[in-house]
Amino acid sequence: MQIRSPEFKQNARIALTDVGLQKALGNVKTGFPDKRAKAVARMPEFDALRDQARDLKNHILQHLDLYLEIFEANVIKQGGQVHWCRTAEDARQTILRLCQEAGAKTVTKGKSMVSEEINLNAHLEAHGIQPVETDLGEYILQLRGDHPSHIIAPAIHLNLEDVSETFHQHHHKPKSMDAAVLMQEARETLREKFVVADVGITGANFLVAETGSTLIVTNEGNGDLTQTLPKTHIVVSSIEKVVPTLEDMSLFLRLLARSATGQEFTVYNTLSSGTKRLGDQDGPEAFHVVLVDNGRSDMLGGELQEMLRCIRCAACMNHCPVYGAIGGHAYGWVYPGPMGSVLTPQMIGIEQAALLPNASTFCGKCEEVCPVRIPLPKLMRHWRKNEFERHLTPQAARWGLGIWAFFAKRPSLYRLLSRISNLSLRSLAGKKQRIEKLPFGQAWTQMRDMPAPSGKTFMQQWQARNKTGHNS
Amino acid sequence: MSRADIFASIQRGLGRRQASAAERAAVEQRLNAKAPNLIPARGQLSGEALQQLFISMAQEASAEIIELTRIQEVPQAAALWLQEKGIEELVLASDPELQALDWSSTQGVLRREGVAQAGDLASLTLAFAGIAETGTLMLYSHPDSPTSLNFLPDNHLLILRRVDLVGVYEEAWNKLRTQVGENWPRTVNMITGPSRSADIEQKLQMGAHGPRRLVIFLID
Ligand code: SF4
């Protein structure tokens, strides 16, 4: 995926006036936070589970080499192999080689953000192997030559009209505006792909040291078909995902679905351990776990270590006013929202991603909802300090003013944020005095020039959100 | 090379070379103890209350529950359910308990045994456990229980014994450890309701890639 993070300001400006995007983003703001709040309310122990999850992740990180060694030994014991990849390039090459060794022409894929991170699809295609995304959202994006804008709801930036048009073009069927019909089309088309694929590639939400297993979490069942039917199953995942035991995995699972979609439990939680056993009638004959580092081990022992606790639930972006206003693509790389603003500079370099840690109102909502209690605002401040030290500040400060202007144009959002914290608003521009000197009146008049539909939708949604906006 | 680099980098970050004896002991202790973490009160039930929790959570996840007494009643109940849906064929797991079922009093259900094929309309399998806290079923792969039966057919019918109901995930893991011993299975499925997706405008649609319907025959 092409890096567009340096153009963050411009991306954000375009996103704010993109009528279709603003309409689609309404689905984030009205859906996820309420669902999470309801699920959390049904689990009185939720905060205690979060404390345990934070502590357990810290324990794991302190013993990461040991747990990874045990995980590897147990994968081998179950008939699988582990491939260690220090960089994204190593991982691309390794997976390509494994696919070539399996004689693969088509590869089905379950949803995997690590595979986006290493830009796997383009690499396979360049070498004559056709990757087929099977998660409905990812499938839609692949047909459109597009990329995920959200880590669990990849096509959240699209509307029904977009999907309808795309499927009409690719499926050669009458155009439908019924989401159920569209999903049915995808189901039928992909069924054929599942059956003929030579290799299935999935990600993993957790790696269990005790049993040498990988776990995927899906609602669709696509990951399961991906990893059950082909002869070879390749898991691509990252080193911080290891957990000691099944009990420990269960702790995280109780937090993951509730934080992510507000479900009590995701439909399919599937544990894979090695190859098919003697006498098994189906299942893969080869099992490979490709473990990607790509900058993660360098975060250990430093100020960013806490970011390695992330379980990729997306709660931080679902509750982020900046993400809600501009969507995921504006961030310009794979991981958007608050977690992305911390991770992206680590993975693509702070020079390229310098603007992202400023894409925050420092309202603190992300930290408030994070199931593993990652202090995201603090980690973003770490990058800002780092920028300052590297003399990247002037640009960043200019952005600070820019983002203030954008919030000033939205009085209801402004009011919401004021209520949350006056202090965090001040930090928008870095210095208190500057905010007070900003031309409020002018910003207000500029709003009249904004396209009405986008402004209206945005306002309506925030107003609706204000009524129910208490969800932790 | 990469492996050594990664481990060196991790150890550099942790500010040590090889882990100390104490660190190794802590890890071994955790792996051996397999101690539960905090277990929510919700699932700590027994008897009727446990069963009711399982049923209500499974139904909330859009699973259908059909309560029966004996496994011998399954063919009738399954045939009736299939008939209502206009389905005439059923793929069964090659489990001796399923093979022993008597279908002679049912009509019009074409049965086959083995793995699922694309286009299969319905499967019948045995669940290993039911987990009340979220209405979740646990199944694991073995020669009599191919995983494809749980995902390819349009409708998944399962038999679950009331005695196999447990409160929480941790109990199910222990039950599985006891059952399989050293022979850990390739796949363990935890299934909570039928397949779904909200990828189009965040509006939930049932039946994405896996079964559109999940039917649980609860027996004694
Ligand atoms: S940072 Fe926290 S809230 Fe955000 S995705 Fe990671 S675990 Fe979830």
UniProtKB/TrEMBL annotation, chain A:
It holds the Pfam family LUD_dom. This is Iron-sulfur cluster-binding protein. InterPro entries: 4Fe4S_Fe-S-bd (IPR017896), 4Fe4S_Fe_S_CS (IPR017900), FTHF_cligase-like_sf (IPR024185), Helical_ferredxn (IPR009051), LUD_dom (IPR003741), LutB/LldF (IPR004452), NagB/RpiA_transferase-like (IPR037171). Keywords: 4Fe-4S, Electron transport, Iron, Iron-sulfur, Metal-binding, Repeat, Transport. Signal peptide: none annotated. It comes from the Bacteria. GO terms for molecular function: 4 iron, 4 sulfur cluster binding; metal ion binding. Residues 301-331 form the 4Fe-4S ferredoxin-type domain. GO terms for biological process: lactate metabolic process.
UniProtKB/TrEMBL annotation, chain B:
Residues 58-219 form the LUD domain. Pfam families: LUD_dom (PF02589). SUPFAM superfamilies: NagB/RpiA/CoA transferase-like. This is LUD domain-containing protein.
